[in-house]
Amino acid sequence: MKIINRHKTAVVWFTGLSGSGKTSLANKVKEELIRLNYSVTHLDGDVIRNGLSKNLSFSDDDRKENLRRVAEVIKILTNGSEKIIILASFISPRRKDRNMVRGMVNADNFDPDMDFEILANKPIKQYQIYKEKLIKTKGTPDKNSWDIFIDELLLFYPDQSVR
Length: 163
Description:
- The chain is an alpha/beta fold.
- The protein has two domains: 10-121, Rossmann fold; 122-163.
- The chain has six helices and four strands, in the order βαβααβαβαα.
- It has a four-stranded parallel beta sheet with strand order 2-3-1-4, sandwiched between helices.
């Protein structure tokens, strides 16, 4: 495999709950990689949701479609001859959805050994503080969005009592 820019193409997938620090961590990694002269881009869930996936809801089917679209963007970015490190920060609590992205992207366009997954998390107690902050800034979260949040929390922390 020909290496350009002193590195291979890689995907680093940051996953975790809303407010877990995925985007902040990815931004710090991006700054450092740029400082070291690596070609890097960051695909962020909020940015994708406000643009490419603006028409999607948060239903299971639409969440899967959102990640399918992200996989297509990653494929476009990795199909060129220039090697790039892609930092992707998405809630994506379901391993089957992350594996779907991995399966779509891990073709001939990059080395699967350069595929990384990072769980950004913090103690569960801090999510209660996050909930209280949401209530203060946005009012009481509607039941549906809070239930989705709790369901995701349980996917990341299956042994915890959080309800």
